[in-house]
Every structure is written in structure tokens, then in C-alpha cells.
Amino acid sequence: MTNKTKYMSTKESVNFCKKADELRAKNSYREAISDYLNAIMLKRDNAESYYGLGICYKHLENYSKAIYYLEKSTEINEYNYQTYFELGICNLLKGIPCQAIKNFVKAIQLNPENPDAILQLGISHELCDEYDMALMIYQKLIENSPEYLKAYDHKSSLLMKMERYKEASLILNQIIKINPEYYKAYAGIGICFDKLGRKADAQRYYRKFLTKNPQSEQADFVKKRMQKLKQQKVPSQILSLI
């Protein structure tokens, strides 16, 4: 192949990839796949086209193919943060969180300032039942990015899963200090106090939650729980009158 032919093939490959990127941006994933494949046929070492293919298959929920093409992209360009991040996400979506860990670690090495990969690394460890490691990662993320509410949210949820309700309530209170409108935190604190037997405090936070967002998906649960807590007070009131 002459230099001129190589140049023309590369140019055509870039054009196909650009067209595919535009289709992908419009959520036309199947159409984009065709153009990405055309780009790859003209230039086998086109990392961007392999990446685009992977993202298209991810959105089409074909995670095996998504992982295959994203891995091909990393073989050509091992310095793209986004490719490793998306690989990790596809691993999680495919239900192989322990495989996701190495990809999120690589993404963090390439872009240590981005909190999203660190959060997903914590989630991956949590899904692998490595709770202590997950808690450590969430806490480190809170210390490094104190305004990143997702870290508080995931840490409090994991603490609740571990039945460490007092600690969870403290983390949820930190969320409210940062953003008083974060309505889910009020429900979380209410549940923590409920589990700890602090019924009056639980009701107080349940009411705050309903005031903040009465249309939430959790609203029905909270209303029913408040009603049960009110009913639990009745026997003691009757006894006091006897």
C-alpha cells in the first residue's frame, strides 16, 4: 500500500468515525455501529472507533460485545481514562464487579482528580462484599471531595445495610449541612432513628422528608411507617389512664 493510499484510507476512516460519533450522539446506536465498523475496516488501529462501538453496544445492553470492543480500544490506546471508566461500568452492568475493580483502578491512575471512578471503585468493592474496603474508599472520597454528595449517600447506605444506624445517621446529617434540600437524607435519618428505637425522632425526620418532597417514591412507605408509629403509642397511653 502506497503512502497516498494509506493517507486516503486514514482520512476515510476518520470521516466514518466522525459520522458514527454524530449518530451515537443522537442515540442512533445501530446506525452508528455500521459506520464504526467501516472506519475499522479502513484503519485497524482506530482506537476511537473501537471505543464508539463499545459505547453503542453498552446502550444496546449487549455488555459482552461492549467489553470486547472497549478492551480492543485499550490495546491500541492505554492512556484513555474514559475507556477504562466505561469498561468498569460495563463490568458492573454485566454483573462482574470484581473485574470492574482493575478497570476503575486504571482509570483513577490516569485521572486521580475525577471522583466518579473512585466512587465506582467503592461500589465495586461493596458488590464484591468487601465492605470495609468500600467504606474506606467512600470516606477517602468524602475527605478529598467534601462537596461530592454521592460519596456520603453510598457510605450511609452501606452503613445502614450493615445495621450501623447511628454512624449512618451522622453521615446523613453531613449531607443536610451541605445541602438542606437533599430530601432523601431526611428519610434516611428517619429510618435510622426508627431502627434505633427513637420513635419521636424518627417521626420528626419523616415529617421533614414529606415536607421536602411529598411526591417522592418513598412517600407512601414513610406515611405508612408514621401511621404504625402513632398506633404503637396507643397502648402506653391507655395504660397511663388505668
What is the topology?
Blueprint: H1 3-25, H2 29-42, H3 47-59, H4 63-76, H5 81-93, H6 97-110, H7 115-127, H8 131-144, H9 149-161, H10 165-178, H11 183-195, H12 199-212, H13 219-241
Helix pairs in contact: 1-2, 1-3, 2-3, 3-4, 4-5, 5-6, 6-7, 7-8, 8-9, 9-10, 10-11, 11-12, 12-13
List keywords for this structure.
242 residues; disordered C terminus; elongated; 13 helices; mainly alpha; single chain
Structural description of this entry:
The chain has 242 residues and is an all-alpha fold. It has helices at 3-25, 29-42, 47-59, 63-76, 81-93, 97-110, 115-127, 131-144, 149-161, 165-178, 183-195, 199-212, 219-241. It has a domain at 146-235: Tetratricopeptide repeat domain (Serine Threonine Protein Phosphatase 5, Tetratricopeptide repeat), CATH 1.25.40.10.
- Low-confidence blocks of residues: 236-242
The secondary-structure element order is: HHHHHHHHHHHHH
Distance between the termini: 101 Å
Major β-sheet annotation: none
Q: What percentage of residues falls in helices of 4 or more residues? A: over 70%
Q: Give the class-level CATH name of the domain at 146-235.
A: Mainly Alpha
Q: What class, by secondary structure content?
A: mainly alpha
Radius of gyration: 25 Å
Number of helices: 13
User: What's the number of extended β-strand segments?
Assistant: 0
Fold-level CATH name of the domain at 146-235: Serine Threonine Protein Phosphatase 5, Tetratricopeptide repeat
Mean pLDDT, nearest integer? 93
* The CATH superfamily title of the domain at 146-235: Tetratricopeptide repeat domain
